[in-house]
Amino acid sequence: MPxxxxxxxxxxxxxxxxxxxxxxxxxxxxxQIDFQALHKAGYRGAVFDKDNxxxxxxxxxxxxxxxxxxxxxxxxxxxxxxxxxxxxxGSHIDVGEIEAESVTHHLSxxxxxxxxxxxxxxxxxxxxAYFRSLPQPVRDEELVIVGDRLLTDVxxxxxxxxKKLSRGAIPPDEKRALIEERDEGSGPALLDRVGPLAVWTDxxxxxxxxxLRAIEKGMLKGVERWVLGPQEAAWREGLQHRFVxxxxxxxxxxxxxxxxxxxxxxxxx
Length: 269
Known about the structure:
Layout: H1 5-16, E1 25-27, H2 35-40, E2 45-48, H3 67-77, E3 82-84, H4 98-107, H5 121-132, E4 143-147, H6 150-159, E5 162-163, H7 172-183, E6 193-194, E7 197-201, H8 210-226, H9 230-243, H10 259-268
GO molecular function, one term: phosphatidylglycerophosphatase activity
Keywords: Signal
InterPro entries: HAD-like_sf, HAD_sf, PGP_Pase, PGPP1/Gep4
């Protein structure tokens, strides 16, 4: 794993704005994401992490179980509107961009070339530049950002949100939903911000960085307990019901999982 200074400094930013670590939607893996519902709501582009989200870490081929969901995603958003942003493939450590070319070949979508790692603002700038360069540019609030790491993928998505919305900046369906929620008295704190939908995949295709992941989950639980109000929690639950398919994900029996895995899962509860 490359040295990631922006990721190391991210927890310090949480001291100022702890909501940065809050995902909008939580799924086990991308099979649970309702891509057609997202597109219908006005989302036109998607950004995906690679390792443990789409592929086995340090491999370039799609996890076979995700084949149908990945095809649905690409068909829903269209060519060029799905982008891989990885802290390995396409980053400054990808000498000669060999890994980026391999990932593009195996996943059939472009890989962002970026000099600074997620969740840095420089990486965000590169993402924005890519989607603005499309024949039909995609705004931040029309993006879905999907990844398995809270301190990189989720924080990056939430850093892209901005204050002082203009009504024309929100996709029509989302604007109507926000107005309805405002009229019902729910989610007032969210109406002054607009940005990508942050989707956290909390399942693992291969065990790695278990201690760091447990710390991330502890941070999330702390923020949910001490910062998240009941109205905002209800708003997030509404997003969960709206954009997540009731797809059951088969898990291996507890007996076949290692001791470290079982301890880690206990810490997550």
